[in-house]
Design a protein that fits this description.
Blueprint (H helix, E strand, L loop, with lengths): L1 H5 L3 H21 L3 H10 L4 H25 L5 H21 L6 H20 L14 H17 L4 H11 L5 H25 L5 H25 L1 H23 L1
Helix pairs in contact: 2-3, 2-4, 2-10, 3-4, 4-9, 4-10, 5-7, 5-9, 6-11, 7-8, 8-9
């Protein structure tokens, strides 16, 4: 690990800071920040496990920054959200443990199509508004969805924020900005769960992670401010664009 760090110069660290800033801004509005930071970490010469662990470390700061700003602006009710946060935390931890024993090949082949469907839904659905709506769907389905998404984030990860938003809109009846705010809080919870196990394994490159965490924190704060200021006008188009780009990138890597 020390050899990896010694090869990094200030220019490379600045490059990673900028990448994390951009990822934090985009992720706080539309998700998919890991699609920016993980490839850049790998291109920088960091081994895959260390790259994943360091990415989880720095992205935790981004999700916290966004969630905290949404909370300050009144879009996040901690008392109502905390039980769900604990739920996704527990299953994310379980997923992080399980990934060490189970192959993810099949899941990686299905994922781009799931993200593509998600983007198409956001592009054409008339139900996505800023207003919270009544829903007749039993809350048990939302709990089941969060259980699966929490496990998925610890097990694999890409697109977690997008899936959380979709569950909150379809099953919870929340408005777009409310869903985004809660998704950031729940994503912070799943990130912390995975982070604990990566830290115990000694896989995090802390110097690189701290530099990127600073970029993530600033970018996510600005992104959450933009989401609150412009609402659906910026959130919906960016979600659609990021979803299509993510799906295209994953399909390209496969074929």
């Amino acid at each position: 690990m020390q050899e990896i760090l010694s090869e990094f110069d200030f220019l490379m660290l600045f490059f990673l800071f900028v990448a994390a800033f951009v990822a934090g801004f985009v992720d706080s509005i539309a998700g998919g920040g890991g699609m920016i930071t993980i490839p850049i970490l790998l291109i920088s010469g960091i081994p895959p496990i260390e790259a994943l662990a360091t990415n989880k470390f720095q992205s935790t700061f981004g999700s916290f920054s966004a969630a905290y700003h949404f909370y300050k602006k009144g879009y996040l009710n901690l008392k109502r959200a905390l039980p769900f946060a604990l739920l996704v935390f527990a299953f994310s931890a379980l997923g992080t443990i399980s990934v060490q024993f189970i192959q993810t090949d099949s899941l990686s082949k299905i994922l781009p199509f799931l993200i593509l469907i998600f983007g198409i839904y956001f592009l054409f659905s008339p139900k996505i508004t800023e207003e919270q709506r009544a829903t007749t769907i039993h809350q048990g389905f939302l709990i089941l969805a969060f259980t699966c998404i929490g496990f998925y984030d610890g097990f694999f990860g890409p697109g977690t924020g997008s899936f959380l938003m979709l569950a909150l809109i379809l099953l919870g009846g929340f408005g777009l900005t409310q869903s985004l705010a809660q998704a950031k809080f729940y994503n912070f919870s799943t990130n912390v769960a995975s982070l604990v196990f990566f830290a115990l394994g000694g896989k995090i490159l802390f110097i690189i992670g701290i530099v990127m965490a600073l970029g993530q924190f600033i970018g996510a704060n600005l992104g959450s401010r933009a989401a609150i200021t412009y609402g659906i006008r910026i959130i919906k188009p960016l979600i659609v664009i990021v979803s299509f780009v993510m799906a295209a990138k994953l399909l390209y890597e496969q074929f």
